[in-house]
Amino acid sequence: MTTLIFxxxxxxxxxxxxxxxxxxxxxxxxxxxxxxxxxxxxxxETQYVLDYFKVxxxxxxxxxxxxxxxxxxxxxxxxxxxxxxxxxxxxAVVDHHRIANFTTAAPLYYRAEAIGSTNSVIYNIFKEHNFxxxxxxxxxxxxxxxxxxxxxxxxxxxxxxxxxxxELAKIAGINLEEFGLAMLKAGTxxxxxxxxxxxxxxxxSFDMAGQSVRIGQVNTVDLDEIYARQADLTAAMQEEAxxxxxxxxxxxxxxxxxxxxxxxxxxxxxxxxxxxxxQTFDGNNRIDLPGxxxxxxxxxPQLTAAFEG
Length: 309
Known about the structure:
- This protein has twelve helices and eleven strands.
- It is α/β, with parallel strands linked by helices.
- Helix 2 links the parallel strand 2 (34-38) and strand 3.
- It is globular and about 60 Å long.
- The mean pLDDT is 96.
């Protein structure tokens, strides 16, 4: 039986490339019956990376037969995973997020580090085993790290990430600044994306004090593009929140050039958002989030504390 390896729903670059790198690690370990798959199609940034390194996108899966064996990368929370995950056998998890809403019936391999990307964790494991990382794989892993840390500008970038990324770039034979900026900008072409794709392209669901909270994030080089579409985006958010039962849907638009964000919301939770960030919503239903670029480190913990406080 083939073990499927995948990242979270609405996969970003780290989720997809981490599945590939962890699959390669498993093969070198001797576990050859593995396949890297995805819980969604690659976004524009990820597709740029796959095209650059001449790699086919992983097969997209929507369901897995009950009892199937899987390995999770870049996530552990069940609401972010494949439907029916509680009926599957989870053999391993490699992650760099909080641990929540996660349980298994059998022992497993679990590796999590407070580090900038899942690929950084996997790189450490490769090194511990003295396994080979090809130039192509190094490029994919570097892309995952670049994506999750905004080319090391995010506060999630640790000293270890700053050691790993140049090492991967050297193996891959890429210029970090040139490649990194090009791939990040590839993901900011909002004109070619639908409203639903923007709100869902990088969105995750969280349970916060019993409230279902959906947090989406979109990168841009021009916040005015987002402002021009805000009415349509919030309408799409409201429609989805109603359909899926979200108590709060928060969309964060991040200016990757200036490392600032702005958020807008539908649903309940305005007081908690304002308390979490020490800011207030203006008359346009926008809240400034200066210096905020990381959902994992600068949004989820603060908002969780506000809901539980």
